[in-house]
Write a structure and sequence with these properties.
Length: 194
């Protein structure tokens, strides 16, 4: 699949993401890049001038990087078309992201058992790892203690009965891949507010 490089203007972009890797779930009509990206594009990486390329970002980390660097000129978002949905639900097939409209299992991810619950989980991802690097630079080995307090968050689906955790694309997550998931508070508007 061909990659597209989109030069981002400064300020708000009017796009929302979900999943890991981040997938564009909506593009506002008044978005300055509405004609360049579309729903379903997968974000491969972000290039910030005078910094390294940042790849393998989940939706939360991508949102944070774009917000933190919103006034930097010359940012580039590298996107690709998402894979077409598979014709069969074979295990391991890439699946489109699932929208989370409520907490109870009316909408499990692909391959998930109905009746489970969407929850929020803190885990050690790119944001936590970056903070640990800064902690090590400032405080040497005690800086690694930051890894004990994950800063990254993601939605997970907990299946009924077995308690198995899945991400929005249906990928099974290891039990020890993060802190125990927490119920999503009523009225929570989501983590993607770009």
């Amino acid at each position: 699949m061909a990659l597209s490089k989109v030069t981002l203007p400064t300020g708000k972009l009017g796009i929302k993401f979900v999943g890991s890797p981040a997938v564009i779930t909506s593009v506002a009509d008044d978005s300055p890049i509405a004609h360049l990206v579309k729903q379903g594009h997968v974000v491969e990486k972000v290039i910030i001038p005078e910094m390294d390329e940042i790849s393998d970002l989940d939706a939360n980390a991508l949102r944070d990087v774009l917000a933190e660097k919103s006034e930097v000129e010359g940012r580039i978002l590298v996107v690709k078309e998402s894979s077409p949905p598979p014709t069969s639900s074979s295990p391991g097939s890439p699946q489109p992201p699932v929208s989370i409209s409520n907490n109870r299992g009316n909408n499990p991810p692909p391959g998930g058992k109905p009746g489970g619950e969407w929850m929020m989980q803190q885990y050690t991802g790119s944001k936590t790892q970056a903070a640990a690097c800064v902690g090590c630079l400032c405080f040497c080995l005690p800086g690694l203690l930051i890894l004990c307090c994950p800063l990254d968050k993601r939605y997970v689906y907990q299946e009924p009965g077995n308690g198995r955790l899945l991400d929005g694309s249906g990928k099974v997550l290891a039990k020890d891949s993060g802190n125990p998931p927490q119920k999503i508070p009523p009225g929570y508007m989501g983590m993607n507010r770009n």
